[in-house]
Design a protein that fits this description.
This protein is of the alpha+beta class. The chain is built from five helices and six strands, in the order ααββββαββαα. The protein has a six-stranded antiparallel beta sheet. The radius of gyration is 21 Å and the shape is globular.
Amino acid sequence: MLRYILPLVLIASMTSAQDAPELPAPEPAMTYERLGRIIFALDPEAQPSGPGFQFVIEGVPVLVVTDAQADRMRAMVPIRSASDLSAEDLTRMMQANFDSALDARYAIANGTLWAAFIHPLSPLEKNQFISGLGQTVNVAKTYGTLYSGGAVQYGGGDSGGLQRQLIDDLLKKGEEI
């Protein structure tokens, strides 16, 4: 067996680095400024707001907040008042947080139910951010029905394709950045 392996090792070692596929260059660290360029590519009418941005995706208002010191970012979509959520509503949202909301989450803060995508800022990649935004908008839009981030659906039907379309459209807009 060894006599067959040795020639293969020699042949493999003679292959030059030029024959190896070129890996894509690593993305630069995400910053407030880079995040802004991505957001303005998605919505040219976006508005800076303190340490974040306000903009609209598919008619849905989105707020992105950054904290450079904590190296965090949060994309949020307000859904409704949280004051009269039932136990069934809360249970269904927790189930969705586990299996269908994906990178987005249902959250409650300051009396409001939110769809949120939270991630460390500097390692965040462009397509992760764009996908997270699409999932957050989808979670907000599907509250009360599918409770889905839209990137993965189990079963048949039209909803998965329609929700995935938003993420694909946003990723396409971000290709030029």
